[in-house]
Every structure is written in structure tokens, then in C-alpha cells.
């Protein structure tokens, strides 16, 4: 759907002629995320460079009747940033500055387009640490991380993005600018609207600025990879290590993951033995006694039959390569057009839950290769089904969707989430009620109506209009 010439000119008047693009390549580049299920069809891409310009674009959307889709690093996995219905994409590529460092509060004020790795590096340069980390840190933007409440590989110790947001500046769907929480740790003055915008996927308004909390940098991180004979053993290993050490990460992945990553990247297998599953754990070895404790736990797990083999990184390079076994999985499987599920349950329910899911997958996809990995330390599983080379993409996605009901009925059975950290977007929208009750969804719609009465903000994401 093309914009009216007058509306297009109004956008150019706001941001400048060179900051509005309608060419085919730009529309295809900025109208998507990492999902492959929807064809991008935006009407224009707009690149504001100030909060005032963002506000003017939102107000124009209300007056002219077009919809807005926010665009950050476009690394999302739920089609939350896909503009499939003629929307105007608002890119934050030029709102990418770190504007203030507040040392006394261990806080940093940033614009929404700041890349995650940019913030991580800034923290390190100032002797601090930003702990929310994931494979797309080099391209994902903080506004998108906030919009999806991104998690990643350190959640077991540091929590989700939500835990690190001290304050927000947002442009609501009505075009109002709100400054939320004013960057304070303690602020008991009614509803904390900041938390409504965290995880809202741009459906209430646009995050334009955030104040992020930083932490002390971890010291002497040690990485172990342990091979286990079955999945329940992974959970035994988690319980034993977590009872005696303060873990900063606990991840798991399957043997097929190791085969694909080592073939793709050329890094070595962690050890000679091949086992069905692997656990990667990380901890701070603040003393020799803590390193000795880790080895004692490892030996106990071997004696119990929970671990077949293992390795402790002996150098920074080896530790990085051990991490690559986990972090390179998404990049490695991307060419296979994977069908992804990002699901979670309480940690105590994980063994029974994964057994049920594995049975469904084995019965329904006997000829498909399935890659398991995830942040098992916080109950988050990533189920990836790889498209066979000879199968058309549409046929593959249709077959996967046909089994979704069984998968999500199992999620509901264990009182879990159909989306642990990737958001709902369009890919999980039809399954929202497996996690949220119908009454809850009505409250969500009512909240959206308050902030976005004309429905201009990322419509069709999370839920459809009533």
C-alpha cells in the first residue's frame, strides 16, 4: 500500500529528504527481522535523528492514518519488526548515541539505537559490566532488547533486560513523550509504567531513550563443557553445581548442534566422546578453593553416571571456543531455514516437559533433523526443526505449524510460556492464549487502547484488535 504523496512529503519535512526511503532494496532490508515466514511490504522507511522527530512522525501517523513498525537491529525471531501490511518503518539507526555516564549510580543513558555490544564495550571501558548477552549482541539494538525483554545466556545470575532498565523515555501511540521512573532505584509513587513498555514490542509506543544499570565486572570466569548420557542428567548436573557454586551461566545443547557447529566453524569438539547432550557452565573462580570445588563436583557427577566426559577451559582462547559451541548454533543453522520454538517452564518441570515434547517431535517429524539448545538454567528451551533441502519452504512451515497445537498444549499442561524471550510478534500470536488467559488478553487490549487509541503502533503484533 503506497503512501499518499502529501503524507510522504510530510515525512520528508520532518526528517529530511535523504532520511525517507521508498526504494525496493531499503523496503526489503528494514521491513524484516530474522524470521522467514512473512514477506516484507512496508510503504516507507523513516530515519529520525531526534526524539522530537520521532514524536512528529507518530503524530503524523495519527493524523494521516498510517501505521508504524519500529525497527532496531532486526534480529528478532517472532516477526515483531516485520512490516507486512504497508506500514511505515521507523528505524533507530541514527538515534545511536550514549549520552551520559552516571558513575555514582553505575548507570548510563543511551538512545534506543545503541547496539548491545556498544553498551557492553562502554561498560568495560569504565570498569563495569552490562550482563545481558546473546549471539546477536553485535547487531541487536537496546530499544529492541527492551521491547522484547531480551534474555540470553546470563539470565541464571543476572536476569532479563527488565532487571537493568532504570528509566525510559517513550513516545506513546498518541504522540505524548513520557519520562518513566526518572532513573531511580527507589520510587514508590504509583504504577510503574516503565514495565509496561518493557516487553510490549512497540505496541504501546516507541522507546527512544533508556537509562541502563551496570554492574561490577566478573572476575576470573571459568568455563566447563560436560557431556551427559541423557537429558535428566543435565538437570542433575545443574542441581549439583548450583547448590555449591554461584553460576553465571548454564546452557545445554545436543550432539547434532556440536556436529553442525564444528563442521561450520572449524572449531574442535570439546572432547573425543560424543554424548547425546552437553552442559556448558560458567562461574567466577575467585579463589583456588572454588576451582577445586568445581572439579570435585565434576568428579562426583562422573561417579554418579551423570557425566561421561568433560573439559575445563585452560586459556581465554579455549574458553571462547567452548562458548562458541553454544553461541554459534543460531548462525550455523540459519541456512537450513529452521522452524524455531522458544518455550519455557519452571526449572523443576523441565525433565518431564522435554520428555513430552521430544515424544511429540519424534512421532511427528521422524525424518526431520531437530536441534535442541537453550538456557536450561532458567527453564528456557529452544526447539529448532531443520528444513530438508528438497522440501519447499511453504510446505515445511505448514507441516511444522500443524504440530504447534500439540507442542503448545504441552506448554499449557506444564503452565509454561509459548515465548520465553523472543516475544510474540506475529509468529506466536495465534498461540497467546496457551500462556495468557482470555481475561488477561482483554486487559492487554485495554492497556493498548489507553496508550494507542488509534491503533497506529505496530498493529497485528501480540494480538489482533478486538
TrEMBL record:
Keywords: FAD, Flavoprotein, Metal-binding, Oxidoreductase, Zinc. Its EC number is 1.1.99.39. It catalyses: (R)-2-hydroxyglutarate + A = 2-oxoglutarate + AH2. Its cofactor is FAD. GO terms for biological process: respiratory electron transport chain. Residues 38-217 form the FAD-binding PCMH-type domain. Belongs to the FAD-binding oxidoreductase/transferase type 4 family. This is D-2-hydroxyglutarate dehydrogenase.
Amino acid at each position: 500500500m503506497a503512501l499518499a504523496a502529501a503524507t510522504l512529503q510530510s515525512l520528508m519535512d520532518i526528517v529530511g529528504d535523504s532520511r525517507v526511503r521508498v526504494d525496493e532494496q531499503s523496503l526489503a532490508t528494514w521491513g524484516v527481522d530474522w524470521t522467514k515466514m512473512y514477506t516484507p511490504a512496508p510503504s516507507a522507511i523513516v530515519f529520525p535523528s531526534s526524539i522530537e522527530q520521532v514524536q512528529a512522525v507518530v503524530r503524523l501517523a495519527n493524523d494521516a492514518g498510517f501505521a508504524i513498525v519500529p525497527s532496531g537491529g532486526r534480529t528478532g525471531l517472532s516477526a515483531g519488526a516485520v512490516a507486512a501490511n504497508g506500514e511505515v518503518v521507523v528505524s533507530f539507526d541514527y538515534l545511536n548515541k550514549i549520552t551520559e555516564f552516571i558513575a555514582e549510580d553505575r548507570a548510563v543513558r543511551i538512545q534506543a539505537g545503541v547496539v548491545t555490544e556498544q553498551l557492553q564495550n562502554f561498560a568495560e571501558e569504565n570498569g563495569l559490566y552490562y550482563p545481558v548477552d546473546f549471539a546477536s549482541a553485535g547487531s541487536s539494538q537496546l530499544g529492541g532488547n527492551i521491547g522484547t525483554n531480551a534474555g540470553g545466556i546470563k539470565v541464571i545470575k543476572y536476569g532479563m533486560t527488565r532487571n537493568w532498565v532504570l528509566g525510559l523515555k517513550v513516545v506513546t501511540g498518541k504522540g505524548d513523550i513520557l519520562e518513566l521512573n526518572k532513573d531511580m532505584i527507589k520510587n514508590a509513587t504509583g504504577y510503574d509504567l516503565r514495565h509496561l513498555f518493557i516487553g510490549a514490542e512497540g505496541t504501546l509506543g516507541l522507546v527512544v531513550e533508556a537509562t541502563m544499570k551496570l554492574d561490577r565486572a566478573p572476575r576470573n570466569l571459568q568455563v566447563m563443557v560436560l557431556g551427559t548420557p541423557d537429558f535428566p542428567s543435565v538437570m542433575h548436573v545443574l542441581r549439583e553445581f548450583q547448590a555449591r557454586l554461584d553460576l553465571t551461566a548454564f546452557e545445554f545443547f545436543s550432539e547434532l548442534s556440536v556436529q553442525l557447529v564444528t563442521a561450520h566453524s572449524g572449531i574442535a569438539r570439546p572432547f573425543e566422546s560424543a554424548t547425546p547432550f552437553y552442559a556448558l557452565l560458567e562461574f567466577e573462580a575467585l579463589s583456588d578453593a572454588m576451582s577445586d570445588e568445581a572439579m570435585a563436583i565434576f568428579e562426583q557427577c562422573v561417579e554418579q553416571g551423570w557425566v561421561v566426559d568433560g573439559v575445563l577451559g585452560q586459556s581465554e582462547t579455549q574458553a571462547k571456543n567452548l562458548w562458541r559451541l553454544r553461541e554459534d548454533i543460531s548462525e550455523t543453522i540459519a541456512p537450513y531455514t529452521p522452524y524455531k520454538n522458544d518455550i519455557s517452564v519452571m526449572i523443576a518441570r523441565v525433565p518431564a516437559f522435554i520428555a513430552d515434547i521430544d515424544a511429540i517431535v519424534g512421532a511427528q517429524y521422524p525424518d526431520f533433523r531437530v536441534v535442541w539448545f537453550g538456557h536450561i538454567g532458567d527453564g528456557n528451551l529452544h526447539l529448532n526443526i531443520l528444513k530438508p533441502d528438497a522440501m519447499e519452504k511453504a510446505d515445511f512451515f505448514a507441516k511444522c505449524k500443524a504440530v504447534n497445537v500439540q507442542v503448545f498444549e504441552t506448554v499449557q499442561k506444564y503452565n509454561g510460556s509459548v515465548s520465553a524471550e523472543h516475544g510474540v510478534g506475529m509468529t506466536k500470536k495465534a498461540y497467546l492464549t496457551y500462556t495468557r488467559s482470555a481475561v488477561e488478553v482483554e486487559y492487554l487490549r485495554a492497556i493498548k487502547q489507553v496508550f494507542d487509541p488509534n491503533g497506529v503502533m505496530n498493529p497485528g503484533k501480540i494480538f489482533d484488535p478486538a
